[in-house]
Amino acid sequence: MQRPIIKIGRTKSLGRREHRHIGKSHRRKNPPVRRIPTLASGHSFESIGTKKQLAILGSTGSIGTQALQVVAEHSDLFEVYALTANRNIDLLVEQARRFSPEAVVIADKSLYPRLKEALSDMPIKVYAGSEAIAQIVEAQPIDMVLTAMMGYAGLYPTIKAIEAGKAIALANKETLVVAGELITGLALEKRVPIIPVDSEHSAIFQCLSGENNNPIEKIILTASGGPFRNLSAEKLKHVTKNEALKHPNWKMGAKITIDSASMMNKGFEVIEARWLFNVGPEQIEVAVHPQSIVHSMVQFQDGAIKAQLGLPNMKLPIQYAFAYPYRLPNPDPKPQLDHYMTLTFERPDTGRFPLLEYAYEAMRRGGNMPCIMNAANEIVVDAFLNDRIAFTDMPQLIARAMNAVSFVSTPTYDDYVATDTETLRLTQEWI
Fold first, then answer.
1. Span 364-376, pLDDT tens digits
2. Tens of pLDDT along 58-67?
3. What residue ranges of the chain have pLDDT lower than 70?
4. What values do phi and psi take at 295, rounded to 5?
5. Which CATH architecture has domain 24-197?
6. DSSP line for 96-133
């Protein structure tokens, strides 16, 4: 078995310069893949001599803000070329003023005048709209695109970044959940590296480093169990959004925190792992690990298990993706093993948390089924956060969508778009 499916490498930094106009008439259809040879032993990351140019999609979210902390701590190595946000204009302006990117993009076009005015005294290009986000990732100086946008919206700009030959630091798991076969096939065709940023997939990636394609027997994804790990099925019917948003270990955005509480997030990660590491559903196991110190494990055919340990902090996997294959100093606290003398693992309860099993079923059926599941989940999570449905209504509505929406066994990109639209409409009608 060959893995990982994505060839890992680095793209050459071309330095900071003016990017071309992002209008369609100026877009290159076949941009060259820019690479440098592997550095000889003894050479340091700093010896490259140019800063890696980053585009951070979703800079105002949890991952985006922590990514900018990494940039600030290693400003001699990384530079921000572009920042994008959905609606959080105040934070985007603050970030733009601090990091002085070449360009910023706000997805909500109605906020463009306000953003333009707020940055009128700075030499920063300002754009708006989802198409502008997809176009800005094609700018020539960009070396790596961090895809930290929430949900399905991250798919199209990721495709455009891959087509433009940009290295991908993948934090938008929905991209591979929705269209894993399309994305990995395109990345292989364009010889573009995809480096995972999710803590679990980063852990697996780190465990595989230096293994020289030794066959994987099993991947073990760890899960905290969320705030309701020990709650009965009856009590789950009555939990509130405020209770669901109190994750015991991680500080994340509202959507992913709810997904963690329902174990939908772990289901997404199972599908993501299938595509990142070219393994089958039977080779992916989930273990509930309440301490969140072991981020995931890999078992090899000789029975050896490698694990990556660390504190529940996303800065480490972000930094690892930015600097790969080098490890950089990290000023954050390090794990003190005497504080974690007991590490426990248990099997997930898919009776109380059926969405994990739904994810396995979607993965086994393939086609557009994961896309259906993802779109339905976006609607039900929003409904739960707005007090329109109960926590236990979410899996019921997702199962209904998976049975009702048109199934396509070999979807194209247009099929994914149609599936997403149909699923959003139907699920919204049922609520």
1. 999 999 999 999 9
2. 999 999 999 9
3. 1-49
4. -85, -25
5. 3-Layer(aba) Sandwich (3.40)
6. HHHH--SEEEES-GGGHHHHHHHTTTSS-EEEESHHHH
